[in-house]
Write a structure and sequence with these properties.
two-stranded antiparallel ribbon; alpha/beta; 2 domains; 365 residues; Isopropylmalate Dehydrogenase; 11 helices; ten-stranded mixed beta sheet; single chain
């Protein structure tokens, strides 16, 4: 039996509620396939931890996480703790110190998911966003000068290194090649005359090594428009940290909402653990009510399974989610239902089990 060690950080707000359902599905996969298992260690870090200890995680937290194969994160942020503290003290700290420079966000319209676009079909919305995750506009470089004075000025510096830009673009080319799909770069070279001109140049340079990969390049404003009017233009997309953050939320809006939005933070070299998370935030307004949508957290489990080398099981989890969405008898209020969070998790497990019993999915030895 292969045993995978998972560091679980339930986090804040609805994080513990949705993570619980993701773990439920992960354990169900293990029970359905005894060839591998998951050992979960829980870490109580987040804003509540900050309120007690003045820090978002233990001083030796990174060393503790390093011993695991993956990290499963619920949510970060809660009223009373400034966002820049909660973000930089936990989520971004992990991303940066573990060199999780690839952020993967699937924008895929599942059967049964609501879509606000009038004429969009399921096959029109199937994008894989590859977002640079370690530098760019979120590098944390800058300064705040002359605070409180008339001449006050702030500097927020985007950092685009040759290494960082080239490796994310190369990862995107490799992904597009392996999937035999179109690769689109999104930048803003007409206005950002250093960083984005450099990005475009590197995209073109690396592309010479991949003559078989068809490419397009769009300015970010044009890309935003096309995502709404012609989403079928996009298959694999590579973009910077900030643009990726914004565009993937737009992508979530057209593919079912944030309750169906999952994200993976990968260290492709596997020198450090990668991290998997729903991207919807801590939603403090509904925390503790048992009505949070766990499907994004469960989709994150699918991403984790794929990263571990079990693509069939990853796809099976998505098929189970689709069955829940199409049956429509067990959905949380954000999707028009009345079900509780735990009921949705149970329903996904039942759908997954049904796939195996109907021999639509065979255990992998």
């Amino acid at each position: 039996m292969k045993k995978w060690n998972i560091a679980v950080i339930p986090g804040d707000g609805i994080g513990p509620e949705v993570v619980s359902e993701g773990i439920k599905v992960l354990q169900a996969v293990s029970e359905l396939n005894p060839a591998f298992a998951f050992d979960c260690a829980y870490f109580p870090w987040g804003c509540e931890y900050y309120a007690k200890h003045g820090k978002m995680m233990d001083d030796h937290g990174m060393e503790q996480l390093r011993a695991h194969d993956a990290i499963y994160l619920g949510a970060v942020g809660y009223p009373g703790v400034p966002d820049h503290i909660s973000l930089w003290g936990l989520l971004l700290k992990i991303r940066k110190e573990f060199d999780q420079y690839v952020n993967i966000r699937p924008i895929r319209l599942l059967s049964g998911a609501p879509c606000p676009l009038r004429d969009a079909a399921k096959e029109d919305i199937d994008m894989l966003f590859i977002r640079e995750n370690s530098e760019g506009e979120y590098a944390g470089a800058g300064d705040w000068l002359f605070r409180g004075k008339p001449e006050e000025v702030v500097l927020q510096t985007g950092v685009f290194s040759r290494k960082g830009t080239e490796r994310i673009i190369r990862y995107a080319y490799e992904t597009a090649r392996s999937l035999n799909k179109l690769l689109t770069s999104v930048s803003k070279g007409n206005a950002l005359n250093y960083s984005m001109v450099f990005w475009d140049q590197v995209f073109e340079e690396v592309g010479k090594e991949y003559p078989d990969v068809k490419t397009y390049s769009y300015l970010v404003d044009a890309a935003s428009m096309f995502m709404i009017k012609q989403p079928q233009r996009f298959e694999v997309v590579v973009t910077s940290n900030l643009f990726g953050d914004i565009l993937t939320d737009l992508g979530a809006a057209i593919s079912g909402g944030l309750g169906l939005a999952a994200g993976a933070n990968l260290n492709p070299d596997r020198r450090y653990p990668s991290m998997f998370e729903p991207i919807h935030g801590s939603a403090p307004d509904i925390a503790g009510r048992g009505i949070a949508n766990p499907l994004a957290a469960i989709w994150s489990v699918s991403q984790m399974l794929d990263f571990f080398g079990y693509p069939d099981w990853a796809e099976a989890v998505l098929r189970a989610i689709e069955q829940v969405l199409t049956d429509r008898d067990t959905l949380t209020p954000d999707l028009g239902g009345t079900a509780a969070t735990a009921e949705v998790g149970d329903r996904v497990v039942a759908a997954l089990t049904g796939l195996v019993r109907r021999h639509e999915l065979k255990p992998v030895q």
